[in-house]
TrEMBL record:
It comes from the Bacteria. This is Uncharacterized protein. It comes from Christiangramia flava JLT2011.
Amino acid sequence: MKKILYSMILGIALVSCKNDQKNEPVVEDANTKEYQKIAEANGFKEFDDVEKIGFTFNVKVGDSVRSKRHWVWNRKAGKISLTENDSVSSYVKKDSLGDSEKSIDSKFINDSYWLLFPFQMEWSNAKISDPKEATAPISGDQMKMLTVSFPSEGGYTPGDSYDIYYDDDLMIQEWVYKSADGGREMATTWEDYKNYDGIKIARSHKNKEGNFELFFTDIEVTKNKSE
């Protein structure tokens, strides 16, 4: 997030793989908010059974891969491990982190938000608008849109917001990142969805010009073993 592309990449406040499955309809409740329906459509309830998740976060600008980070998140132990540039580091998620741990944590928050943003809407303290009809910025299609705004204080990038464009199946198709100071804005797609044992993940995000792609590889989801 050094220039506009990297600002967007780091701009979020911060094994078993099944074949693609059809989206299961979300059972609606009168009290269920739209963002909760999106989370559930992406497998939010299934995530309760996830013990460990691994993934590689990649950023490609033009023909050059600028970032490549592999993560293993052991949810049961609260341990997060990072492999980057042949170096391995880890920390245990807790309320108080040292400076070196914060450096790793800020990367993990960013990368995992891209991976699991539908769930982050449930987990975070963001303010989320009611949905409305809007024109998606890249495809030009009419979709439903809601805005996710993070608090102006706290987190690694306070005050940033995202316009989320999603289809009738409650799958995010595009989003627009907006920095808190209004100086940076960028839209990317959400595509190449795959179902990982009930967890639906968009593996590719591209800008309109096609010279930027943020994508995930090596995704592994391990669920708790049945007693």
